[in-house]
Amino acid sequence: MSTKDWIEKDFYKVLGVSKDAKPEEIKKAYRKLARDNHPDQNPGNPAAEQRFKDVSEANDVLSHTEKRKEYDEARRLFGGGGFRFPGSGGGGASRGQSGPSMEDLFRNAGGAGGDAGLGDLFGGLFGQNGQTRTTRSTTRGPRRGSDVEGEVTVDFTDSINGVTVPMQMVSDAACDACHGTGAKAGTVPKVCTTCEGSGMQTSAAGGVFAVTEPCRDCRGRGMVVDDPCPICHGSGRARSTRTMQVRIPAGVTDGQRIRLKGKGGAGENGGAAGDLYVVVHVSPHAIFGRKADNLTLTAPVTFNEAALGAEIEVPTLDGGPVKLRVPQGTPNGRTFRVRGKGVTKRDAGKGDLLVTVEVVVPQSLTDQAREALTSYGEAVGGSNPRARLFTRTA
Known about the structure:
Elements: H1 3-8, H2 11-15, H3 23-37, H4 46-62, H5 65-79, H6 102-106, H7 114-122, E1 132-135, E2 148-154, H8 156-161, E3 163-174, E4 190-191, E5 200-205, E6 211-214, E7 223-224, E8 237-248, E9 257-260, E10 276-282, E11 288-291, E12 294-301, H9 303-308, E13 310-314, E14 322-326, E15 335-338, E16 353-359, H10 367-380
Helix pairs in contact: 3-4
């Protein structure tokens, strides 16, 4: 059946259903007509045999949601309404009276006859007999390598300053036994006849919209292996283990995912390599913590230092201590900022070191210390620091 016949044939009329018939109505009508016109029920009746073929063809299109949608759209655009193909009827003037026909207009578009021209014009949209048409290419394109993901654990200090660590990678690579062909030693793969080596096929299932997808026969490789390699089972790929040096940038955080472009699996046919994604785990530090781009530290101070004031030394992550002035009357939990002793930022600057003081209360006292504290209590008076907790506000 030509493209013109496929567009103009009224499958709804063949099954005796309306254009908005539901799937169950179409199914019911087809079963009845197929049963009544089946060749086994009508031996020697060519008319019944033809009707059986017609209802089967109509059911094949209308029972399939996508095919039906494309069929309706094709008839709306090319088979009905504004213009029709010659011989489509419609109660108008005959061909001899209506001027140039569609076939006359397209006769020279690509063939000697009207059907040839129409076939070239609409062949990309509608397959013969409503079947899928495949567009083939002789060029087998490159394939990008697969992305690889790994994990690495670094020290807290290394996460702040940056470090290069060895990392063992497992990824897909060309099989050593067949050198990536997928064929057993002594044999060679054949070009896929379906996609002609392109690895892709474009189909339009009797409708307007074309879909490009990997070839089903060669699974996108463009080659078919008759005698597969026993190592990779015809895939041409094998697991590859290699160790590479990975640079962890300064300031990385725990759980951060780093992308290293082009460090993943190797590509095929000149394709680019995939990417390597590294998830970084940071081991906690014994005394330092982290808050955004700042480092945190808790520094113990004595009661005397907090009450009278003092100058104390605190460590920094790079090893050199810095002096910190604790003012007189510093309360427990107060935080001081040491500029530029924190995490390296992306703009090459550095965060700060946040030092929180913690007043240490002695667990045991000597007699002399107890007497001194008693004298201190008497000297400052007997004011109750919790009195305000019991004061009622208006």
